[in-house]
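Annotated sample (chain length 294).
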Amino acid sequence: MKKELFKGVMTAIVTPFKNGTFDPKAMEALIEFQIAEGVDGIVPCGSTGESATLNHQEHQEVIDFTVKKVKGRVQVIAGTGSNSTDEAVALTRFAEKAGADGALLTTPYYNKPTQEGLFRHYKEIHEKTGIPLILYNIPGRTGVNMIPETVARLAGLERVSAIKEASGSLVQMMEIIRVCKDRLTLLSGDDGLTLPILAIGGKGVISVTANILPKALKQMIDAFNQGNLEKAREIHYRFLPLHDAMFIETNPIPVKAALVLMGRCSDSLRLPLTSLSEPNGEKLKRVLKEFQLI
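Output written by the structure step:
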């Protein structure tokens, strides 16, 4: 039985930019907000952090900055995935050296490896680093689905600690729990599915919505863990419209637009991502006003 290292609410934090470059002042304020609201972890340089358009120097800067500002108050899980195994190893080594508590590694994208290729990709990273690893399955973005049998093989590796599952398939997630048992922690990769995932044995969420409303997600998970299912369901259904709004366009366009409206960062994304369209911007404003966030 492996120790359960990662659970609760972990925020897939945005990377704020100002005039096209990383904005450390805004990032520090975002980090402090997250910690004050009671999150269990912060995840820099994930999909929500626009990792795909950060160069290596920026990627390392954001991870290093986050670790130093957090100062051990919550966990820092660095996004270090790549479609190049060597690059993922290098980024994971940097995160380990910087003092991150773990690394989040998306399945390789575009090159569409086989299941054997996925296994060997993660095994290579495991062999060449010494940090706890979180697998990340998100076939809608990567073009490849890591099946439960492959996850089970990887769960046999000492430092493969968890999986962020964003396939959208609860059946697949239940099969992961069945075949991995207590060798792997299941984490939600979809805010709207967090409660159902807790119900089947998941332990938390790596969340987009937590960028703007972390406390509510923390309260839902706490209520579930305390056996107060009625309260957990009430929170879940109350905030479903907000989760939906975060994906009205490609993530992280809507969540960054929300943070702009809340005065927490500037309206700056890296091409090819563009600002939220005007019609969807109006829809987002209505939802944020409904939840008294603006």
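Annotation: The longest helix spans residues 56-70.
Annotation: The chain has a mean pLDDT of 96.
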